[in-house]
Design brief:
The complex is a heterotrimer of chains A (132), B (186) and C (508). With 186 residues, chain B is an all-alpha fold. Chain B contains 5 helices and no strands. Chain C is 73% helix and 1% strand. Chain C is globular and about 65 Å long. The chains are: A alpha/beta (132), B mainly alpha (186), C mainly alpha (508). Chains B and C meet through helix 1, helix 2, helix 3, helix 4 and helix 5 of B and helix 7, helix 8, helix 17, helix 18 and helix 19 of C.
Chain lengths: 132, 186, 508
């Protein structure tokens, strides 16, 4: 069994990663960190750079968690995350969420909501500590 | 002028090309360049033939209307020959690089075909439906083909853009773009 | 001087100032945005501006032209993906500086250097252009014909790596220019009355620059996002100023003449500026390749100075030497203005307002670029489907608004396919556009020259200026061949190889 974390290079992604690492260590499971992007814009802030990835790898190694970081370029981030969770038969899928205004949800749709509704494994939703 | 496929198009590559594409699948000779040379030669010959059919112009005219056509047309034919020779000797075209361009993967013919379809539909419909409608369809179609799947949102943005640009041209710039089917509505 | 002051008075009217602001904002934005350059932007705006006053439109275009240079340096420093050839050199040291945590200083020296170079070059432009115009206006048709041949040969053979491809592009452009009516007869119109007036340059320019580019990028879209280096507000300390001011001035000295010569472009002066700075760096020599501020200051100044320099042949002779200048020339023709020496006599107010607005644009650019560089970098987050769909949208709108005919949109698509093929086959775009614009004028001047001499061809080299120009053309065409024969020397067509070698060297 594997703990899958939907990671983004921001505060809520960080929160999800911390929680995911805890879960993995607690249950002695492997950790799979997924940082996906659609690549539709030249720069994607939520897509981690090489420095971020190295930092996360060393941090996880120091925690003694067996971890893998994947950075796929996909058509749909939500679908990709769900597909990975299914592929590795995830014990739990950890995602970071943030508050969204109703209008924002209407226009942009909610990734978190789609994951919560469509995932076949338990989903753990974490909020960023600094409220971002 | 369209270029035939110079590389074997990997069907999966048309969707999401792999980041590391092996350069080994380049054929030794850039065969598509022969196609370019052929097109240039045809245009050149046609230019010369068309020029030959022109009358002498005014009686005292020194540079006849055909003169430039002869020079440019034969120049094109000569350049086409040179290009064919250079190609045979291993000359390869280097595609233009850019900030958003990744030349390491092959040409994405599916997206290209989609955009061509959108443009053809625009040409076919623009006189009938008018700019406000066709512009919205053009934007939404192009954005969807280019990989944004929220087509309802694309259509909304397109509609806002096209109606706003229609009014902008009509009222702001005094350029009366025909309204098409929406005549009387806008 | 009085004329320039009048120009300032007119340029500072609220309406013209507004166009200048719009121009520099648009210019910086398109400089930052991937895939859009100033030439494409001016082309897309051509149809819109036919209904505003020519001076307002030209002020806006000048702002876009200068602004594109500023914006381009921002991306080459923060992303290491130079969009235009002129900022390749900036990326060498600039991106290294940014990676070493000195992005703010790199952006500052680029922006301030661009301002310094732009201002000095605009002063030179103001001093030179009227003089050149006075000198050119007395020339007869044979000399003018020779100058146009020079411009065509120069943009074709010096820029770009392959002369063959340059000439192919030029010949295609000249062929497009043939379409229309010659002394009352339809030429190359395929019997189509819609082509009797020739192909509108707006349609060709928009198709080649906008549609061709959008199709090309769409077919080769880079999917993996690039890493942008986070940056605060650009600033420099005393040491940086001390190390920057001399490269700025030297870069200007390289850039302006190269821009003003009908063939210079920005690649050569930025390259020369870089190697000069590296040679003169002294104790900082070791920093080159790891982020030396001199290597950003010099090339950026050269880059902007050459942009100002290209306005000398454009305004004084009516010869475009860069893609943007070519489109601006097309715009002037669209307004019914006769670009070239006559312009200074026929439309002094317009010319001086434009020149004055260059100073204003340059100052505005410094003001909006220094504090707002991080904000501009945010433009890179625009989803590309919207960006390129928007380009196609405005391209079709522009082509359709010329005559409200589906036929123009069809032509747009056809020439868009040509633009795609040109990018695929590495054919340079500039010779084609210059060929379309200058081809008909070339024919006209040749006709005039030979009409006066009653068909005596020797009249073409009957003026001393014409002879000199033909000698220059011969030097341009044969020079590289001769240089190649001398061992150890390299001709200008080796520039690209030099740059490649330099990049290798710096990267290793």
């Amino acid at each position: 069994m594997t703990v899958v974390v939907g990671w983004t290079a921001d505060a809520r992604g960080h929160a999800a990663l911390q929680r995911g690492a805890q879960e993995a260590r607690l249950h002695g499971e492997a950790l799979l960190v997924v940082n996906a992007t659609t690549g539709t814009s030249t720069v994607d802030d939520r897509f981690a750079g090489a420095a971020d990835v190295t930092e996360v790898r060393t941090q996880l190694a120091s925690l003694g968690v067996e971890a893998e970081v994947r950075q796929p370029v996909v058509r749909d981030v939500t679908e990709a995350l769900l597909a990975v969770a299914e592929e590795v038969d995830a014990s739990v899928l950890v995602i970071g969420i943030r508050h969204r205004s109703p209008v924002g949800k209407l226009i942009m749709g909610s990734t978190a909501q789609r994951i919560l509704l469509d995932a076949r494994c338990p989903v753990l939703a974490v909020k960023a500590t600094d409220g971002r | 002028m369209s270029a035939p496929a110079d590389r074997a198009a990997d069907p999966s590559a048309s969707d999401h090309p792999p980041v590391d594409h092996p350069p080994a699948d380049h054929p030794p000779v850039d065969r598509a360049q022969y196609g370019l040379a052929a097109v240039l030669a045809v245009v050149g010959v046609w230019t010369v033939v068309d020029s030959a059919g022109l009358g002498p112009g005014f009686a005292d005219q020194v540079v006849r209307p055909a003169a430039f056509g002869y020079v440019i047309g034969s120049g094109l034919v000569l350049l086409a020959l040179l290009l064919a020779v250079a190609t045979a000797r291993g000359d390869r075209a280097e595609g233009e690089a850019g900030e958003d361009v990744d030349l390491s993967s092959g040409t994405d013919w599916r997206t290209l075909a989609g955009l061509a379809g959108v443009l053809v539909a625009t040409v076919a419909l623009i006189d009938w439906l008018g700019w406000a409608v066709v512009g919205a369809l053009l934007f939404a179609g192009a954005a969807t083909v280019l990989g944004n799947r929220h087509w309802v949102r694309n259509l909304l943005i397109g509609a806002v853009l096209s109606v706003a640009s229609w009014y902008g041209f009509y009222v702001g710039l005094g350029i009366p773009i025909p309204a098409g089917v929406l005549d009387g509505v806008l | 001087m009085d004329a320039l002051l009048t120009g300032f008075e007119l340029a500072l009217t609220p309406q013209n100032l507004l166009y200048a602001v719009v121009g520099v904002l648009l210019g910086t934005a398109v400089g930052v945005l991937p895939g859009i350059g100033p030439a494409m932007t001016v082309a897309l705006l051509l149809p819109v501006t036919y209904n505003v006053s020519p001076s307002a439109a030209l002020i806006m275009f000048a702002g876009i032209y200068y602004g594109g240079m500023y914006g381009g340096s921002t991306t080459s420093i923060l992303l290491n993906t130079p969009g235009e050839s002129s900022s390749v050199i900036t990326a060498l040291e600039g991106n290294k500086m940014a990676k070493a945590g000195r992005a703010a200083q790199a952006l500052a020296t680029a922006a301030i250097g661009s301002f310094v170079a732009g201002t000095i070059s605009t002063v030179l432009l103001v001093a030179l252009a009227p003089t050149v115009a006075e000198w050119v206006v007395v020339l007869g048709a044979p000399s003018y014909f020779a100058l146009m041949v020079l411009a065509l040969i120069a943009v074709t053979s010096v820029l770009g790596s392959s002369k063959l491809r340059g000439f192919i592009s030029l010949a295609v452009g000249l062929t497009i220019g043939l379409v229309g009516t010659a002394t009352g007869q339809a030429r190359l119109t395929f019997g189509n009355p819609l082509l009797a007036d020739g192909i509108d340059i707006v349609v060709v320019a928009v198709a080649i620059f906008a549609v061709g580019e959008a199709l090309w990028v769409a077919a080769h879209l880079r999917r993996r996002p690039l890493e942008v280096i986070p940056v605060g507000r650009p600033w420099m300390d005393r040491t940086d100023w001390g190390r920057s001011w001399k490269p700025w001035l030297r870069g200007t000295a390289y850039g302006f003449p190269f821009g003003a010569l009908p063939a210079g472009g920005a690649e050569m002066p930025t390259f020369l500026s870089y190697i000069t700075e590296r040679r003169l760096a002294g104790k900082h020599r070791a920093e080159f390749g790891k982020g030396a501020i001199e290597g950003v200051a010099g090339p950026e100044a050269a880059n902007n100075a050459s942009a100002a320099g290209t306005l000398v042949p454009l305004l004084a002779i009516g010869l475009p030497t860069t893609a943007t200048a070519a489109v601006i020339l097309a715009a002037m023709q669209g307004y019914g203005l006769q670009p070239g020496p006559q312009l200074f006599e026929a439309e002094p107010e317009l010319v001086w307002t434009l020149l004055a607005s260059l100073f204003i644009a340059n100052t505005l650019l410094l003001v909006i670029n220094l504090p707002m560089a991080p904000l501009w970098a945010k433009l890179l987050r625009i989803p590309r489907p919207y960006l390129y769909a928007g380009i196609l949208f405005f391209a079709v709108l522009g082509a359709y608004s010329v005559n409200f005919q589906w036929f123009d949109v069809a032509l747009l698509g056809l020439f868009g396919a040509l633009g795609f093929a040109m990018r695929r086959f590495g054919l340079p775009v500039l010779p084609l556009i210059v060929g379309v614009i200058l081809g008909p004028r070339l024919e006209e001047q040749l006709g005039q020259a030979l009409q006066l001499s009653r068909g005596d061809v020797s009249a073409l080299w009957g003026e001393p200026v014409a002879v000199i120009v033909y000698l220059v053309i011969a030097a341009l065409l044969l020079g590289p061949l001769v240089l190649r024969l001398i061992p150890g020397r390299q001709g200008p067509e080796r520039l690209e190889d030099d740059i490649d070698a330099l990049e290798e060297e710096v990267r290793s």
